[in-house]
């Protein structure tokens, strides 16, 4: 039975999917996620067969990969679903401007011409930066359609006082950020404090207003796949537009077993509520082959309607360079040196 929810809960919030194709699951159209009241029974009953998940993830990687023009098409799709990211202590305005220029034109013109894809106007989905650089990125991306995403809420640890984290979100939204990547308090997961986690994420959702909210679970810190599943469910109940694996700063970041658990939680949530939540793996995804593994998993677990930037993102910094090298190899038959494809 579908879980009852109050559709008026976020009526004043513009829908994340407004003006774009409606996602569907098994042919049934889905609504944007407005959240539901916390269902503790659902959270506590979550179970994960770790061995089965790991076997399924291994089989994903072991399968025969796509080749030739089909591979090139998948890699182009990966670029359009990319949050091109710089989150370093030595970031500068000039580095962010260069990254934005790469995001607007991620493939060198001569490679585009050889592939015959000039008319596709391939570009990344978003540029992800610290709050300090939101205004710089907005100016650099003006008129491109590429979004600006700001990391917030005491990124990456998320341990500053709640009021400070909420104000940080508001400042980024007021500065013009289209998307906000928030981090949860992991201790709430360890202690099973699901109401506290739900209330925290709901406060973030309220502060985001019209901005797209991506909730970072910090899965490398959560210790078990069962914790990942429970945190995923609570985040979706609290109104997440996306659930995201990692900050990229944890020792272990995005892995296929974690991705499998999170995407199946997204599927279960859609089946129970009729609402769609996006997914973003981030951290450690550096090769073109890895990007295809992730896209294939999304297609198999959630369907083709999730294979677009509105429902799926890669958090990436080094991934684009390898994809561009693979595309050049497809166009010319030769691999180029990595330094020929700088990001910033």
Helix-strand blueprint:
Layout: E1 24-25, E2 28-29, E3 31-32, H1 40-44, H2 50-62, H3 68-80, E4 82-85, H4 93-104, H5 109-115, E5 126-129, H6 134-141, E6 147-151, H7 162-175, E7 179-183, H8 186-190, H9 194-208, E8 212-216, H10 225-237, E9 242-244, H11 256-273, E10 275-276, E11 278-280, H12 288-302, E12 314-316, H13 319-332
Parallel strand pairs: 3-10, 4-5, 4-12, 5-6, 6-7, 7-8, 8-9, 9-11
Antiparallel strand pairs: 1-2
Helix pairs in contact: 2-11, 3-12, 3-13, 4-6, 7-9, 9-10, 10-11, 11-12
Architecture overview:
The protein has 344 residues and is an alpha/beta fold. The protein has a single domain, classed as Alpha-Beta Barrel (TIM Barrel), CATH 3.20.20. The protein contains 13 helices and 12 strands. The protein has an 8-stranded parallel beta sheet with strand order 11-9-8-7-6-5-4-12. A two-stranded antiparallel sheet has the order 1-2. Helix 3 crosses helix 12, helix 7 (162-175) packs parallel to helix 9 and helix 9 packs across helix 10. The model is unreliable at 1-19 (pLDDT under 50).
Give a concise summary.
By secondary structure, the chain is of the alpha/beta class. It has helices at residues 40-44, 50-62, 68-80, 93-104, 109-115, 134-141, 162-175, 186-190, 194-208, 225-237, 256-273, 288-302, 319-332; strands spanning 24-25, 28-29, 31-32, 82-85, 126-129, 147-151, 179-183, 212-216, 242-244, 275-276, 278-280, 314-316. α6 links the parallel β5 (126-129) and β6 (147-151).
